[in-house]
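JOB MANIFEST
job_type = single_chain_structure
chain_count = 1
residues = 414
[input]
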Amino acid sequence: MRQLYSFYSDAFWIALKSILEHKLRALLTLIGIIIGVAAVIVVAASISGLKTYVVEKASKILGSNHFMMTRMASMGQMSEEEFEKRNRRNKEINWEEYEYIKANCRNCSHVGAQINGGTTITQDSIEMPSVRVIGVTANMAEIEDKTIIDGRFMTDEESTRIANVCVIGTDVKEKFFPNGSAVGQELKVRGIPMRVIGVEESRGSFFGNSQDRHIYVPITVAGQMFNRTGGIQVHGKGATTEKFRAAIEEARTLLRNKRQLIGTEEDTFGLVNVDEFNSTMDMITGSIAMVVLPITAIILVVGGIVVMNIMLVSVTERTFEVGLRKALGATRKQILLQFLIESSLLCIVGGLLGLLLAIGATQVVGALLSITMTIELKYIVISVAVSSVIGVVAGLYPAWKAARLDPIVALTQS
């Protein structure tokens, strides 16, 4: 055992000495490995950061433990055939069904309703097109975890009767009331004077679309504005994270019972939730990784070819050394392992330098794009392991060539 340890220890120090004697050559050799490892890790961190960014944004917009039921809803892409099938089968959710779910969903902490519309707001010669007008019940503030930075949200009484009040997004506030508070001011929405009672905290943009270009009004008022007699969205929130799935299933069962659907019949409504969104993002980012990471890994293969070339040069330069060691009793296996250890050490160093470069690059890219880029441990392990394997593979032929040298011929080529 001591002899084996001594061999590997000596082989390691000989390999390290050989690398340090040719620092510039070693560095130039490792550029492919360094860039390859850094590229793989940075791309993986970018994909992870994209997922985290989208999920955080969605959670901020949709709220946690939140699900929605409406006539047509799907987290994934539907085929044209499936869309037409659902379009024929599904029915609008009405107020009576909403109240039935609200009264009977025991695992739900809140059940609210919403209808959506859009309009152009014009006031005092200022025009703002494509403003979302969202009719809501008062508890939508709790369901979607809304934060009001000025004033308040509407009350239950205001949301269920004809009360001309509204809560506006920050884009609307900055457009019509840039100076001072908007609370108490009047804003005309589709010709109806509405008193501003609150301003929602900015939620930023989501894939380039502002999430602050909206006005919340009582759902009864929105129904009159847009002549809606049905077609509402039902929003629910699980009492706890543990009860979230149970709340979704209970709400789904209640609506099925209300519509008298038997067990074999398909739902005549759509249902989506935040967990499904996260699962969809996992699938999307996983697909991106499957395509992008192998392409990025090609750089590592190129780096391996460069390492193989340099190791062949090293074998040629050290022909006399190999001959002398074989003349003194070194076996083919020992010569083979010596050069494999050297090429592996070379690539491991490249992998570690690539990791350091990746850490710096992710910090810079994350700061520029304002997203959190996380380097996952599995990608670090994979990158270093792959660079080690490339070192072994790249050094295999040069090591085999060195091991087969005839000692007499090698000694004559000094």
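[summary]
Residues 2-57+280-411 form one domain.
The mean pLDDT is 79.
exit_status = 0
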